[in-house]
Amino acid sequence: DVQLVESGGGLVQAGGSLRLSCAASGFTFGQHAIGWFRRAPGKEREAVSCISTADENTYYVDSVKGRFTISSDNAKKTVYLQMNRLKPEDTAVYYCAAGVTYCSGSSHYIPRSILYDYWGQGTQVTVSS
Fold this sequence. Notes:
Elements: E1 3-7, E2 10-13, E3 18-25, E4 33-39, E5 46-52, E6 58-60, E7 68-73, E8 78-83, E9 92-99, E10 118-119, E11 123-128
Parallel strand pairs: 2-11
Antiparallel strand pairs: 1-3, 3-8, 4-5, 4-9, 5-6, 7-8, 9-10, 9-11
């Protein structure tokens, strides 16, 4: 069975850091892109970052550039999202997802959630002011 298990969420003060982990199993890790999406209360789901596990191309939404870093450990089948200088507006449930798609750093590229077939259960990130 395909599984994506997120961990690392929690409550942190503004300016603090958290590292989210997404442990994958049940599919060929190196053939997928892994994305992090988030949904804040009252808002639509937003693509935060993604990485192509084959070539390590990455994408970041503008609001997290310079603060968040995505990385992949293919041997452990785990993707990490290091989140630094957190802001209250980063508060959301964060989901990791996997899909047979690509990830690009092109300025015109936005990850489409419909292309991600597998989703984790989500982890809450709360940033207090």
